[in-house]
Amino acid sequence: LQRAGLPYPGQWGNATTWDTNAPATMVDQRPGVGAIAQWNSGWGHVGHVDVVTASYIEVTADNWGGGTTRHRIYNGSPYWPDNFIHALNPFGNIDSVSSPAPGHITVRGWTLDPSQRGGSIPIHVYVNGSFAGSATANTYRPDVPAAYNHYGANVGFNTTFGLAQSGGSKNVCVYAINVGAGDTNPLLGCRTVWTADPNPFGH
């Protein structure tokens, strides 16, 4: 986690709280090679996912008393992890979605990829399920490296898109596009915004 530029795990508390203290876009119940397997029972436990198949995963973990062990865990087993933390996938946040003019939406936020510590990555925007456009998250956001060390500040986006659709309520979703060793393009979130119809009308 430190190599990925994320907070020192000690700041995440015991292993049982890693799922709630990690960036929310990193945590799900889908195993992936390179992800962190996390259990909530007791003080919790974490391990590194080395192998993923249709029927089992293999996880390497350090023992409290010393030593490292590798376990094969089958689907449906009571020992299956509660969560998987995808620490190599992009993460970020949508700050706002607005409509500055009829038929247009503006998305503002930030995103970064642990594999691109000093670089910017693309975002894709979907409106009501249809692709609306892409942009590069490269605007200056000094608040981000203040919270996540080892990253540059040019990781923001503040972009306006014209819509081919008519006006009305729009569900706007933003995805961060993975460019490194991650395994998915995570959804940063969705917002609903109203935009006026850009087309003339009358009676």
Question: In words, what does this structure look like?
Answer:
The strands form 3 sheets. The protein has a 6-stranded antiparallel sheet. It has a 4-stranded antiparallel sheet with strand order 7-8-12-11, with no helix packed on it. A 4-stranded antiparallel sheet has the order 10-9-13-14, with no helix packed on it. The chain has helices at 18-21, 143-147, and strands spanning 27-28, 36-39, 45-52, 56-62, 68-74, 83-85, 91-98, 104-112, 122-127, 130-136, 139-140, 154-162, 168-176, 187-195. The protein is built from 2 helices and 14 strands; from the N terminus they run H-E-E-E-E-E-E-E-E-E-E-E-H-E-E-E. It is elongated, with a radius of gyration of 20 Å. The model has no long low-confidence stretch (mean pLDDT 88). Helices cover 4% and strands 44% of the residues. It is mainly beta and 203 residues long.
Write the layout of secondary structure elements.
Layout: H1 18-21, E1 27-28, E2 36-39, E3 45-52, E4 56-62, E5 68-74, E6 83-85, E7 91-98, E8 104-112, E9 122-127, E10 130-136, E11 139-140, H2 143-147, E12 154-162, E13 168-176, E14 187-195
Antiparallel strand pairs: 1-6, 2-3, 2-6, 3-4, 4-5, 7-8, 8-12, 9-10, 9-13, 11-12, 13-14
Given the structure, what is the number of helices?
A: 2
The description of the largest β-sheet is: 6 strands, antiparallel
Mean pLDDT across every amino acid position:
88
Order of strands, widest sheet: 1-6-2-3-4-5
Termini separation (Å)? 62 Å
Radius of gyration: 20 Å
The number of distinct β-strands equals 14
Elements, N to C (H/E): HEEEEEEEEEEEHEEE
Task: Extract low-pLDDT stretches.
Answer: none
Helix content: under 10%
Q: Kindly estimate the percentage of residues that lie in beta strands according to DSSP.
A: 35-45%
Class from secondary-structure proportions: mainly beta
Form type: elongated
